[in-house]
Amino acid sequence: MPTLAPLPEQPSDVSFPDREWPTGDPPGGEAVARHVARAFDDVEGHGDTYAVLAVHRGRLVFERYGDGYGPDQTYRSWSMAKSMLHAWVGTLVRDGLLDPEARAPVPRWSGDDPRGAITLEQLLRMVDGIDWVEEYVPDVGSHVIPMLFQEGKDDVAAFAEARGLAHEPGTRWNYSSGTSNIVAALAGRAAGDDAEARRASLFRELFEPIGMRTADPRFDAAGTFIGSSYVFASARDFARFGLFYLRDGVWNGKRILPEGWVDHARRETKASDGEYGAHWWLGIARPDSFYCSGFQGQYTICVPSRDLVIVRLGQSSPEQRDHIAGWLNELAGLFPELG
Question: What's residue 2's pLDDT?
Fold first, then answer.
């Protein structure tokens, strides 16, 4: 695999954001504003755009909201939550409570169950081999719809853990919200005995240290963080999370994620053809970018070569998301490379 370029350090003349962000002007003057306006104006091509933010060199340099939306509102993450789950798992790895290389301690996979060979690392990279159909439309054999909204909603991990193997673990990549909820249950058991203890761990180890004051993770009736889909937060707090990963899991001089954990997220999973790392996607805005993605067009994108974080929140169809990908690439190109 290619060697990952080092992540950029926080500029010495810019402090990490506390309640207020350090601000600045985007390079290129009005070019960024004109480009972003295209997304808000072209509803047919882009869908509804709720918010677009850009953080460059540690400063909030651009922020725009759609009519009826603003910085004080919280927005649904959908699958951007998966990347936050990766961060939470990282804090548990740091404390020796989880081992990515060990077999995933799923009680129902014990004994001679072939699923018992699946490792946490394989789950994080979605090469676990579990039989799963990730479709968000009915009547196509979807597993994610019944997990989130129907018979599985009260215990999302149990629903996913009950699926059999479709492939030998480690051989095929298959994007799966069920896999993420299996990971969330593992993290939850490592963090505490009930939803209250698990929620406390998420806030104590992740959200509070980086100042994500609006973060609102959701749990099912079994006490599992629905890490596939449900964190509500403000657009600025999604940007804060992106900056946290752009800074290698260090915040205001304090290392929160274990050394190498962000590289773990952005290192390509072989079987994914360059699309996926570990609960983070790869390459949408520039070849070196890595990003959180939600199915209706939510993005938090880190572009190390430009020391840039872009947040786009909205509601868009799969076809519109293809259009948005090109738009995001062009937006990132308006910011200069580090020299």
Answer: 62
